[in-house]
């Protein structure tokens, strides 16, 4: 991502300051950047989750656009109804966007999301992925990475933490035939904004999956959120790519991938790992890169 490819970051703030997110919250930064890309003519649909909790303690709100809170399981279904209602009213210049956490996307809300994609609704669906149910006690979700410690996957003598690989939702959404699927990270704001803008312009369903470090859940200092996010990208733990009308493209390739150990050792949730455990994760990352590079 050289300077020539960077996009300007709009100054307008559509998620107002004064919300109650933790210092260094990657998900709050994600929501703020996404709104800069989506613009004021947007209706935001949000299921229960971290950002819903911290931005709308009744009777307050941090949203400067129409915003609706729905249940965990039906954000994509509600957004589908709003999109069709706006179309019936002739207001097709209004963007309908879902902003949901990993629990509301990869687990509880997946059925509605699958239906939304299958029916071809013109909606931007953004998943802010902090890799667990963070605001209710750091319980694992389907997006929790391999070997991560959570309150429901505590490491012990036998278990190493989460023993299932992270669910590959972007890949699953792409298999639905969505015209635009992308991954992004809060450490790369221009890339994130560029992808959300592109998702907004797509005719039909678009999906953007954003990695968002969580200081209390991941166990790092709040001042290190961006540094940790950058390490996720530079080590290959998180790959930035997009799939446009079926064409796959890696959008950022580190000059030389750093060892995953540099990323894992900075977080309390991986402190229990042995050198053998870390080597296993390194092999998984290497294999993933090999698979993704083979798609280009």
From TrEMBL:
One of its GO terms (biological process) is sulfur compound biosynthetic process. GO terms for molecular function: oxidoreductase activity; thiamine pyrophosphate binding. It comes from the Archaea. Keywords: Oxidoreductase, Pyruvate. Transmembrane segments: none annotated. InterPro entries: PorB-like (IPR051479), THDP-binding (IPR029061), TPP_enzyme_TPP-bd (IPR011766). The keyword Membrane does not apply. The keyword Endoplasmic reticulum does not apply. Residues 48-210 form the Thiamine pyrophosphate enzyme TPP-binding domain. Heterotetramer of one alpha, one beta, one delta and one gamma chain. NCBIfam families: PRK11864.1, PRK11865.1. This is Pyruvate:ferredoxin oxidoreductase, beta subunit. It comes from Methanopyrus kandleri (strain AV19 / DSM 6324 / JCM 9639 / NBRC 100938).
């Amino acid at each position: 991502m050289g300077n020539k490819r960077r996009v300007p970051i709009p100054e307008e703030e559509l998620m107002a300051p004064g919300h109650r997110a933790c210092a260094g919250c990657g998900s709050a930064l994600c929501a703020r950047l996404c709104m800069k890309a989506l613009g004021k003519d947007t209706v935001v649909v949000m299921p229960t989750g971290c950002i819903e909790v911290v931005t709308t303690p009744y009777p307050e709100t941090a949203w400067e656009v129409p915003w609706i809170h729905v249940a965990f399981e039906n954000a994509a279904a509600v957004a589908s109804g709003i999109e069709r209602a706006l179309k019936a009213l002739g207001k097709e210049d209004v963007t309908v966007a879902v902003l949901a956490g990993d629990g509301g996307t990869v687990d509880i809300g997946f059925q509605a999301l699958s239906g939304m994609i299958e029916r071809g609704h013109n909606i931007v669906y953004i998943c802010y992925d902090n890799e667990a149910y963070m605001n209710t006690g750091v319980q694992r979700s389907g997006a929790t990475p391999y070997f991560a410690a959570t309150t429901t996957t505590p490491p012990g003598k036998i278990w190493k933490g989460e023993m299932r690989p992270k669910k590959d939702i972007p890949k699953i959404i792409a298999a639905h035939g969505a015209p635009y699927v992308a991954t992004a990270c809060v450490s790369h704001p221009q890339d994130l904004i560029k992808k959300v803008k592109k998702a907004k312009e797509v005719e039909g369903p678009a999906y953007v999956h954003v990695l968002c470090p969580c200081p209390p859940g991941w166990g790092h200092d709040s001042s290190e959120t961006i540094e940790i996010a950058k390490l996720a990208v530079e080590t290959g733990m998180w790959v930035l790519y997009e799939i446009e009308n079926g064409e796959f493209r890696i959008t950022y390739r580190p000059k030389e991938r750093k060892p995953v150990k540099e990323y894992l050792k900075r977080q309390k949730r991986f402190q229990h790992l042995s050198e053998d455990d870390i080597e296993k994760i390194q092999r998984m990352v290497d294999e993933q890169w090999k698979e993704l590079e083979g798609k280009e």
